[in-house]
Amino acid sequence: MARFASLVLDIPTRALTAPYDYAVPEELEGDVAVGCTVLVNFSGRPAVGYVVAVSDDAPEGVDPEKVKPLEQVLAPSAFCSAQARLGLWMAREYAAPLNACFRLLLPAGQTVKVTKGDNGWSLDGSVPDAPEDRWVALTEKGRDFVPRANALRQREVLEGLAEGPQRLADLAAVSPGARGAVTALEKKGVVTVSSSLKTGAVDETSLSSARAPRPRVLTQGQRDALSAIARAREAADGSVVLVDGVTGSGKTEVYLQAIEETLAQGRTAIVLVPEISLTAQTVGRFRGRFGDEVSILHSRLSTGERRQQWELARTGHSRVVVGARSALFAPLDNVGLIVVDEEHEQSYKQDQAPRYHARETAAELARLHGAALVLGSATPSMESLERCREGSWRGVPWVRASMPERPGSAVLPAVSVVDMREQFRDRNGSPLSAPLRKALLETHAAGEKSVLLLNRRGFASFLMCRDCGCVPTCPHCSTSLTYHERTRELACHTCGSRWPARAYPDPGTVCPSCGSRYLGAYGIGTQRVEDELRALLPGAPIVRMDADTTKAKGAHQKLLEEFDASPGAVLVGTQMIAKGLDFPDVTLVGVVNADTSLKLPDFRAAERTYGLLEQVAGRAGRGEKPGRVLIQTYWPTHPAITSVAQHNRAAFVRYEMAMRREADYPPFTRLGNVTVSSTNEGLAERVVTQVADELRAATAGRPGWRVLGPTDCLKAKAKDRYRRHVLVKAPLSADLGAVLAEACREVDSRGTSVAIDVDACDLM
Ligand code: ADP
Ligand code: ZN
Ligand code: ZN
């Protein structure tokens, strides 16, 4: 009986929205399975396809005899049918090209392309061999071990290892019988064989908390969270548990124990962490608990290294995969638990096609596998909080487990706010206020450490009054207006309204709210702060961490180790210092400029600022000694600031939810963003207008839909391309991706590039 395969063709076009069916020739039946890469004849042209389903039945309504056969199997199975369904879901949900979604599922380094030449079809690229995944190393005892004189094979192996660890495959290649010798030596305790390999920048290190032992007693919050997770796993329906715990409350410990339980049931686990917190510290904690069972995937690995980690998961050697976004697509069987740490992080939204959100995609994968999804954060997203309040989302239960306390003696730091308007009136030109200077001196004198955060988001794109902190905002959208030098206008990037910026930047301009003349673009750099610190604390170890100092591979890690090892040190940096670092001897955290990010023309500005402050404040007092936090701001009354100071997140959430509901923003609606860019300004304008017209026509009369714009993007021109966008608000139940994709297909967009962003996070 004939078999049929359903294929996603690797053709980069949005027009291809569904798989195609091909017949499986009898001689290939043994080789064709879900996840295989195959070669087909697509309307007379060769094409590569990925098998998403195999069936005994011919496609409906088609004569089985007429179904074209596929030609050849190019690569063995790389993904399972749950992952195949995930790929199809992503393409529809995010209006993304099908082939781009499926490429995420392929092993690193697989690049099969097919071209038609004079002599017929030819294949380019490669399917690399799976690398050997076992490494052999001498143990302490092995260094002095002398094998029996007639144990020639063992002798050869030991000689090979004298220089350092070797791949088992390499040993076997030069010495037949090496595998048997290695097994014998392993039994004697002379060598170790392991699949845990050095993985570039994420080696285990000696950082203090990487060594944290398993606690003997869990807090009540941790126990409750673990039983909620166990129930979610038993439900086997993709149930979600939001572990809502202050920094240092022991969320990571909860993940570790939930993973242990999952492994004990014979299932596997995926842990997503933001790329930036994928540090040796994090990796060390997982390795410390699960040893060789962990694969690590992150963007700093070479293709070979990534391929190796991928292969460890595929072959079942590692049953836990820890990584950034892409770890979601690791080839694990029988996934029982998916953890998304710092679930509120914006970096979970991919900013190139396919523009998927890793948290939402994880929820779909958990549903497909019947796994539990655990989301963790000290500052959960408004989306997750709202779904937990509702109790479900898309038919799946969502529950919140709250962990309001830190274990043991660690207490929440005391937070105070420094009103920079006062400081400015004192004509203290330094970015460091008098109270912050005093605290830095005291902390250093006590031999303790400080962390200083410089908020770089929203850098100098707005006007601010240095006397009252006022920034002009749009009356329709409550987002900050940005200043356009070219047209001397203040513009709203959400609705497109514009106002003349009166005489600015003439010196005669005054603040609309207090009449002050100290109105200007606002900004300071990390270098400046570092210089101030060196003058304030001569001889103190000062570690600066920003985009400039962390360019080199492993630099991030080195700076952290340096900070860890230097008593009395100060770490100064941008938001990259705010996340996940756990140093017990940091007792002071200073925020140099808390509000720059509050003034971004983005409805998430307050949420992000609040989250950043809360995260960085959580760096203080993680050990025995109490910590304190000083927040410098021109806007001391904003709820994002006062809520951090009073440790009152509920107040912030109430404020923020009310704002969102009022203005019809997520989590109460879905938001889509279509950006059209072109080097030809008129063309970009024409195409975006057509897209907006199509969207208006498609959604006219449908309740809850609104089309806003088109307007300039915040970055109205980037790399010589003019950028225009149109925003769509849709009801929560809307099939937003499909509507956006359909509207864009109707428009002739030649000469422009059109980016569809569903559930857009970054509206720049
Ligand atoms: P989070 O991930 O919420 O920031 P962690 O899991 O990193 O918190 O825990 C913070 C610190 O507390 C770590 O050093 C961890 O080893 C320790 N810890 C976690 N749970 C417990 C517990 N039940 N008892 C004692 N210490 C704990
Ligand atoms: Zn003012
Ligand atoms: Zn507006």
UniProtKB/TrEMBL annotation:
- From the UniProt record, list the reaction(s) this protein catalyses: Couples ATP hydrolysis with the unwinding of duplex DNA by translocating in the 3'-5' direction; ATP + H2O = ADP + phosphate + H(+)
Enzyme kind, highest EC tier: isomerase
Binding sites annotated in the UniProt record for Zn(2+) 2: C474, C477, C492, C495
Fetch the PROSITE patterns from UniProt: HELICASE_ATP_BIND_1
Q: Which cofactors, by name?
A: Zn(2+)
Q: How is the cofactor bound?
A: Binds 2 zinc ions per subunit.
Domain (Helicase ATP-binding) ranges: 232-398
Q: List ligand-binding residues for Zn(2+) 1.
A: C465, C468, C511, C514
Q: Which UniProt keywords apply?
A: ATP-binding, DNA replication, DNA-binding, Helicase, Hydrolase, Isomerase, Metal-binding, Nucleotide-binding, Primosome, Zinc
Give the matching CDD domains: DEXHc_priA, SF2_C_priA
* Enzyme Commission code(s) on record: 5.6.2.4
Cited Pfam families: DEAD (PF00270), Helicase_C (PF00271), PriA_3primeBD (PF17764), PriA_C (PF18074), Zn_ribbon_PriA (PF18319)
Task: State what this protein does.
Answer: Initiates the restart of stalled replication forks, which reloads the replicative helicase on sites other than the origin of replication. Recognizes and binds to abandoned replication forks and remodels them to uncover a helicase loading site. Promotes assembly of the primosome at these replication forks.
Listed under subunit, the entry gives: Component of the replication restart primosome.
Family statement drawn from the similarity comment of this UniProt entry: Belongs to the helicase family. PriA subfamily.
What the entry lists under PANTHER family is as follows: PRIMOSOMAL PROTEIN N (PTHR30580:SF0)
UniProt cross-references to HAMAP family, sorted A to Z: PriA
Q: Give the protein's recorded name.
A: Replication restart protein PriA
User: In which organism is this protein found?
Assistant: Kribbibacterium absianum
* Name of encoding gene: priA
